[in-house]
Design a protein that fits this description.
The chain has ten helices and 15 strands.
Length: 259
């Protein structure tokens, strides 16, 4: 019996799995439609922190997908949920301007913040900014990282991600960041709760051997690695994480699932 035939749900990573930059991966739209039309529940989970939830939904569907916004779970949204549960949180948001729209209801300060939220801010990083954050951390602020990825795949090739900045802030301040997105088990549990499924009934499809596959397996899900996006054989071979399945592309997923 196919080990995936008993699954009831699929989590899809976005960038590198369904698309790269502004181009859908060949066969991705058809594969997702076929799976969404089956008995399987789907959620689309991402560490992307450059787009608000509304912008992310528009981008995905402009590429030819037909995915309702409520099926998209982004790491920034998970961070927002966490902050909204705090009592009058004073925040510094190192986030792209579009993503900040989703956090508009929170009080903010550059120098007195109690919570520092770190996401993708492109070329805006500077020593003075890092030092301001460092000083907040040494005075007791909590460091929240949308994710801690090492690198990501762009249309121009691999680029350094925010993990290096997060690690540097941790090292300098002697604190440990709260990681909101993948590979945090809490993030996967949000998706499981929304689907009302157990971890053993769900598989994660991703291009990151550590965050996607390792994180999912640690949370009790199966992990299906695709050879697109940031996937590099040498990196995957060197990882202690072993996927439950390895496929060339998302287009091969329906066959793997026996659809």
């Amino acid at each position: 019996m196919n080990q995936f035939s008993s699954l009831k749900g699929i989590l899809f990573d976005l960038d590198g799995v369904l698309y790269i930059g502004s181009e859908a991966i060949d066969g991705a739209v058809e594969a997702v439609n076929r799976i969404r039309d089956s008995h399987l529940k789907c959620r689309f989970v991402t560490n992307t922190s450059t787009l608000s939830l509304a912008s992310l939904a528009r981008k995905i569907n402009a590429l030819g997908f037909d995915i309702p916004g409520h099926e998209i779970i982004s790491a920034p949204q998970a961070a927002l949920r966490y902050l909204q549960r705090q009592k009058n949180p004073l925040c510094r948001l190192l986030l792209a301007d579009d993503v900040k729209k989703d956090f508009a209801g929170l009080a903010q300060s550059d120098t007195e913040a109690q919570f520092i939220v770190v996401g993708d801010i492109g070329n805006a990083w500077s020593y003075s900014m890092l030092n301001e954050v460092f000083n907040c951390l040494t005075h007791g602020a909590k460091l929240i990282a949308i994710h801690k990825n090492r690198f990501w795949q762009t249309e121009q090739g691999l680029q350094m991600d925010i993990g290096g900045f997060v690690h540097g802030l941790e090292y300098a301040s002697g604190t440990e960041a709260m990681i909101i997105g993948k590979p945090s088990a809490d993030f996967f549990n949000i998706a499981l709760d929304e689907m009302q499924l157990n971890a053993s009934e769900v598989a994660m499809v991703g291009d990151d051997i550590d965050s996607d596959i390792g994180g999912a397996q640690h949370a009790g899900l199966k992990g299906i690695l695709v050879r697109t996006g940031k996937y590099r054989q040498s990196y995957a071979d060197a990882s202690a994480v072993k996927p439950d399945a390895l496929i060339d592309s998302i287009r091969d997923l329906p066959q793997l699932l026996g659809l």
